[in-house]
Write a structure and sequence with these properties.
By secondary structure, the chain is α/β, with parallel strands linked by helices. Helices cover 40% and strands 18% of the residues. The strands form three sheets. It has a four-stranded parallel β-sheet with strand order 1-8-5-6. A two-stranded antiparallel ribbon has the order 2-4. A two-stranded antiparallel sheet has the order 3-7. Helix 2 links the parallel strand 5 and strand 6. Helix 4 packs across helix 5. The radius of gyration is 17 Å and the shape is globular. 23% of the residues are buried.
Length: 162
């Protein structure tokens, strides 16, 4: 089986540098519906039998632009969600909110909607789906952090490549 991994186009954001926990939560919701900046990436559709795509708009827009055959949308490919790691009334740089939320995800804190184990479970469900799909060359359009975790799990399952 050959897998092609594509991260969605760049998202247009207009967030402040310092955010409260409420503002960070709102920024994450806004990111999920924000428009993207399309680029000229084109995929040779003859190389791929099918495309699986996240159900988030930025991934759908990307998949529709780069691939002209069948696209299957699935929630199994959505980004690993992040939430504020604290509800204290403090303003922090947005980068610190991201780092703190990823640490909280990794350490399985209850502040996160999905923890590391749940993400791995979702990845394995998706892997079983494509393994049983009958397709050999599969294009996947998803999100940066999810694809990083997916890539790591596929390497653990014996896949090779970059």
């Amino acid at each position: 089986m050959k897998l092609g991994l594509v991260r969605h186009f760049k998202v247009i954001t207009n967030e402040k540098t310092f955010l409260s926990s409420e503002e960070f939560a709102e920024a994450m919701l806004n990111y999920d519906i924000a428009p993207v900046i399309e680029n000229e990436l084109k995929i040779n559709s003859n190389e791929w039998e099918i495309c699986y795509c996240s159900t988030l708009p930025r991934a759908i827009t990307t998949a529709d632009k780069i691939y002209d055959k069948e696209i299957i949308k699935t929630n199994l490919l959505v980004e690993v969600p992040i939430s504020p790691f604290t509800r204290k009334n403090i303003k922090l740089p947005i980068t610190l909110w991201h780092i703190g939320a990823r640490i909280a995800w990794y350490k399985k804190y209850k502040s996160q909607i999905e923890n590391k184990d749940a993400t791995k479970e979702r990845i394995n469900k998706f892997y079983n789906l494509i393994k049983d799909s009958g397709h050999e060359n599969i294009l996947i359009v998803s999100h940066g952090y999810f694809l990083r975790m997916f890539y790591k799990e596929m390497k653990n399952n014996g896949f090779k490549g970059e």
